[in-house]
Amino acid sequence: MSLTSLKLSAGRDTSHSEASGSSKTLGTLGGDGYSATAGYSREKHSSREDSVAESGLRSRLTSTSGNIIAQAGKDIALAGTDVSAGKSVSLSGENVLFDVSLDTRDGEAHSSSSQYGVTASAGGWAVDAAKAAETAARSAENGDDARLTAIRAGQAAVTAAQGMQSDAAVVKGKVAVTAGSSSQDSRYHSADTQGTAIHAGEKVIINARNDIAGQGVQIGGKQVTLEAGRDIVLSASRDTRHSQSKTSGSQVSAGVGVSLMGSQNGISIELGASRQKGQEDSRSQHHTHSVIRAEEQLTVNSGRDTTLKGAELEGNRVVVNTGRDLTISSVQDNASYDSKQSSSGAGVSLCVPPLCYGASSGNVSASGENVAQSGKSVADQSGIYAGKGGFDITVGNHTQLDGAVIASTADSGKNKLDTGTLGWSDIHNESKTSGDSYTVAVSGSAGGENRNMAPAIGTGQAEESSSDTTSSAISNGSLIIRDTANQKQDTGGL
Known about the structure:
This protein is mainly beta. The protein contains two helices and 35 strands. The protein is 7% helix and 69% strand. Pfam families: Fil_haemagg_2 (PF13332).
């Protein structure tokens, strides 16, 4: 069919949703095994999500046993489209452009709570040591990083040792009026792509008077030809993920305590306050290559430049003719995760005779934990991959390989690269994980013997990294460098 232009794209399904609600509780508000609270609480929550879905509504051109032929005076643009023919597919236009279908999700959620009540709790250095040991055990059970688990186990040992050396009560029970609030906010974004796909039982011919461009495009047939008067640019499509969350909370309390076997014995007045906050950020990016595959021969001709950035040319025999420059580069997937958590608190215990005998005491504490992970690596190597038919590549000016290959399973006599100059580089892949934590506690007392005025400090740190290299390479064959005067790298090192 002859057309002025041909534009096909996936359909689009959009949705928007919102939800909100609140609840109130009067009675038992829960606990953690070391404390329990009864009173009044209120919780509120809200969420929103916007989504766009195209992958389930892709356009299709199909000829089960025949040919698909489209000739356009202007552009042919296919986005999120599947083209298949039992025999041949032929597309011809001023520019032939291949794009992706795109699914996205964007959302956010918010929740908050407040509570007022009476809390009964168990404390003392023996209980504090048990809590720290439980945290370390839970870290191991959850499969956390072994280095961070070791840090937490060390903190548990420090807590127990400091308690035994101090004059704090072995066991201390408290009943207090409490008030507290907390909030959590989260946001997320995701984008998933699916490239246009073209398949023919026999031939696929793509002809552009100007440019051929595509991202994440998949083309396959027995014989495949790409012909552009100017440039051919094939790149990878990209899927992304990003999520963020923030949490915060604070509590205050006032009540009475009962202490045994320590610097206090009897009933004391207890005042306390604490605060917690944390944040997390996670990001990732994954690429899907453009792949042009021929069972027999793949021919790629461009009047100016051919650029493969996250793309593969595959065929039993591959023939490439580029008027100016041939550039092949691999792309790296990447991911990162950052977490920061901190807490602080202060408390006062007033020991007033005759209800209590011993020292009044106070304490201030702070703790935190940071975790960072990042990595970038080449999952699939860009390149030209020929089978037993070998490759025949002719480049007018410069050939550049960046972490890319020109490979063949054929005998070296069937492989030829003829270029003005040749350059190459390797790509560095790396992965890093680091974590650190700290605990600082300062306590003092008056009115009794004091043996613990010095601050207690605990720290831990873990770090690990690894790296490798994605190298450029060319299979053995005939390598012709025509412009030896401007050749900068020694091809013996390739």
